[in-house]
Design goal:
Layout (H helix, E strand, L loop, with lengths): L3 E4 L16 H13 L4 E3 L8 H11 L8 E6 L9 H13 L4 E9 L1 H9 L2 H10 L3 E8 L3 H10 L5 E5 L12 H10 L4 E4 L12 H10 L5 H10 L4 E7 L3 H11 L7 H16 L21 H12 L8 H13 L11 H5 L6 H12 L2
Helix pairs in contact: 1-2, 1-10, 6-7, 8-11, 9-10, 12-13, 12-15
Bound molecules: iron/sulfur cluster (2 copies).
Length: 372
């Protein structure tokens, strides 16, 4: 199987303020190009696009291709569980939403310390093992957002795990918050192949600082910045699949072009990646992946990831220059959302952020940048 998976969490929208308004007319040609070029792996989850990622997958893939032509991963949302009855109810709902009889891969979604306690309380690993015995799941695993100690504990307590999905990219590889290299090492020690999520860091590594862009282009003028990030992770050992959350046809075209006949990075390219990582880390961006886990419970409806992206455009990718475009976009967003300065500092968002970002402090930076 080719090593590129289609992540169905950043699909094109008809209305940018409504995550459920997926533009299926754009998704279908994206899926067709992906399949035409020999790729078969799709990744969805119960919560993506407020549940509409799964139904879009059914409409764009399941109803249009034979079952043996594709594979699909879905993920179990432990945070939705209020009683033991919710396990079979949610699983059945997922099968129905996706329109399939079985999942090729089924993960526990976004394990961290508190979710793991709840997973243990409801014995969710045993439930998924039963679904596997009944032929409803082919392979089981989990996606992970916490520290290496917890990963070691989960893999030791649950050797039935077959795969682990990790956040890996060339910025987070040695990050003290994400612990990517250590987590990758632990999976390898336990003999668990790794599925990579966020190889382009939520799109941030597709739009790199000018100096990095020049460096990449001096080595290969044809290759996009995103291609460097995807190839970096695909070149690591013990990688089963690299996911990319693609949002338009151009991204599918670009990703599939270089992953069709994948060539690992050579020594010169690896050195360029090291240099790029140093340059990007020296700039003062906020390492948000735009996963939106923080926004659902925000009592002020603050557009946290959108504000951080605009801040980064100014700080990280504009060499400090104040551009009018991000300022105008910030003002537009403030017409439908609260301003960064209106944050109540309740902390709800910080407890949900898989990157463990100091969101409250970062919103103050945003306010200083755009509201002064
Ligand atoms: S701390 Fe601020 S941004 Fe975070 S949830 Fe509370 S009000 Fe929203
Ligand atoms: S601030 Fe954290 S939770 Fe919110 S979108 Fe960014 S990475 Fe995700």
């Amino acid at each position: 199987m080719k090593k590129l998976g289609f992540g169905l969490m950043r699909l094109p929208l008809l209305d940018n303020d409504d995550k459920s308004s997926i533009d299926i007319d754009q998704v279908i040609p994206m899926v067709d190009l992906f399949m035409e070029r020999g790729f078969t792996y799709f990744d969805t989850a119960y919560g993506y696009h407020d549940g509409h990622s799964e139904t879009t997958f059914r409409e764009a893939v399941v109803k249009r291709y034979p079952r043996e032509a594709f594979t699909v991963t879905d993920k179990f949302p432990i945070w939705e569980v209020k009683s033991a009855d919710d396990l079979p109810r949610i699983f059945k709902e997922q099968l129905e939403r996706c329109g399939v009889e079985y999942f090729d891969y089924y993960w526990l979604h976004a394990i961290n310390k508190s979710y793991y306690e709840k997973i243990q309380q409801y014995d969710v690993f045993a439930f998924i093992s039963r679904m596997k015995q009944e032929g409803r799941v082919r392979h089981m695993g989990f996606s992970f957002h916490d520290d290496p100690d917890l990963l070691e504990k989960v893999l030791t307590e649950h050797p039935e795990t077959e795969f682990v999905q990790l956040q890996l990219n060339y910025i987070d590889w040695d990050s003290p918050r994400v612990h990517a290299s250590k987590c990758h090492e632990i999976c390898t020690q336990h003999g668990k192949p790794v599925i990579v999520m966020e190889p382009v860091k939520g799109g941030a590594l597709a739009k790199v600082p000018e100096k990095v862009d020049e460096l990449f282009r001096s080595i290969n003028p044809e290759m996009s910045a995103a291609s460097w990030a995807v190839r970096y992770t695909a070149s690591l050992p013990n990688i089963y699949m690299v996911l990319s959350g693609m949002s338009n046809l151009e991204q599918v075209d670009d990703n599939t072009s270089f992953m069709q006949d994948f060539v690992p990075l050579n020594e010169q390219e690896k050195e360029a990646i090291d240099t790029a990582a140093t340059i990007i880390k020296e700039s003062k961006g906020i390492p948000c992946t735009a996963c939106h886990y923080c926004t659902n419970g925000c009592p002020m409806d603050i557009a946290i990831p959108e504000y951080f992206a605009l801040y980064n455009t100014v700080k990280q990718f504009g060499d400090g220059q104040r551009w009018m475009e991000p300022i105008n976009k910030y003002q537009q967003l403030c017409e439908t959302h609260s301003k960064a300065s209106e944050c109540l500092k309740c902390g709800q968002c910080e407890s949900r952020c898989p990157q463990q970002l100091p969101i409250i402090d970062n919103l103050e930076l945003v306010a200083q940048e755009f509201e002064k």
